[in-house]
TrEMBL record:
<comment type="similarity">
    <text>Belongs to the DedA family.</text>
</comment>
<feature type="transmembrane region" description="Helical">
    <location>
        <begin position="164"/>
        <end position="181"/>
    </location>
</feature>
<feature type="transmembrane region" description="Helical">
    <location>
        <begin position="52"/>
        <end position="73"/>
    </location>
</feature>
<dbReference type="GO" id="GO:0005886">
    <property type="term" value="C:plasma membrane"/>
</dbReference>
<feature type="transmembrane region" description="Helical">
    <location>
        <begin position="135"/>
        <end position="158"/>
    </location>
</feature>
<keyword id="KW-1133">Transmembrane helix</keyword>
<protein>
    <recommendedName>
        <fullName>DedA family protein</fullName>
    </recommendedName>
</protein>
<feature type="transmembrane region" description="Helical">
    <location>
        <begin position="102"/>
        <end position="123"/>
    </location>
</feature>
<keyword id="KW-0812">Transmembrane</keyword>
<keyword id="KW-0472">Membrane</keyword>
<keyword id="KW-1003">Cell membrane</keyword>
<dbReference type="InterPro" id="IPR032818">
    <property type="entry name" value="DedA-like"/>
</dbReference>
<feature type="transmembrane region" description="Helical">
    <location>
        <begin position="16"/>
        <end position="40"/>
    </location>
</feature>
Length: 199
């Protein structure tokens, strides 16, 4: 019977690769990799504070990458389908983006539209100082918050079972519940913005 110790041993043996995967997926995705990182930190496979510092560095890379992709899109491909999709997505979720860019960028981190918003911020050439302040402030809450949530998921699952398949199933159920709640909050915010914008 495989226990979670097998997983921690495996992660420990390939720690550099694991950090590379974390870095890549924070730039590409973000939320779920942070939950998994928190789980691995709770299991002792990764040091929580070193990993958190690494996550902040990856978050900064994502911040700059997205903004400069937006500038590139503005300069080279401003009539593309991708830009029209991003503009539609940001306009529906953040109708006050032009008037309140700080709060739009800040909130986007928590309602699953951050990638679109950071590219759009670069496209609209939002002042870099305001953009970085919003991204930095939101990342200070978002990164440790999701890692601690993953830590809690791991704590809950390990209290129920040390067997790796049961542990994984419990974690999967908890992450699925988180995803559903996150989608509901995102949907509720979108409805609120539509109502507020129309009023």
């Amino acid at each position: 019977m495989n226990t979670v110790k097998l997983l921690t041993h495996l992660v420990g043996n390939y720690e550099i690769l694991v950090y590379g995967i974390i870095f890549f997926f924070i730039i590409i995705e973000g939320e779920f990799i942070l939950l998994i990182t928190g789980i691995l930190a709770h299991l002792g496979a990764l040091d929580f504070y070193s990993t958190l510092l690494f996550v902040f560095i990856a978050g900064l890379a994502k911040t700059f990458t997205g903004y400069y992709i937006g500038i590139l899109v503005h300069d080279k491909w401003h009539q593309t389908t991708l830009l029209k999709y991003i503009e539609k997505r940001v306009s529906s979720m953040m109708p006050h983006f032009q008037e309140k860019p700080f709060w739009s960028i800040f909130l986007s981190k928590f309602i699953l539209v951050n990638h679109a918003v950071i590219i759009y911020a670069g496209y609209k050439k939002i002042k870099i100082k305001e953009y970085l302040r919003a991204e930095f402030c939101s990342t200070l809450i978002w990164a440790p918050g999701l890692m601690l949530l993953g830590y809690f998921f791991s704590y809950t699952a390990i209290r129920i079972s040390h067997e790796i398949w049961r542990f994984s199933l419990i974690v999967l159920i908890l992450i699925t519940l988180f995803a559903i709640i996150d989608r509901l909050v995102s949907w509720a915010y979108e409805v609120f913005e539509e109502f507020y914008h129309d009023a």
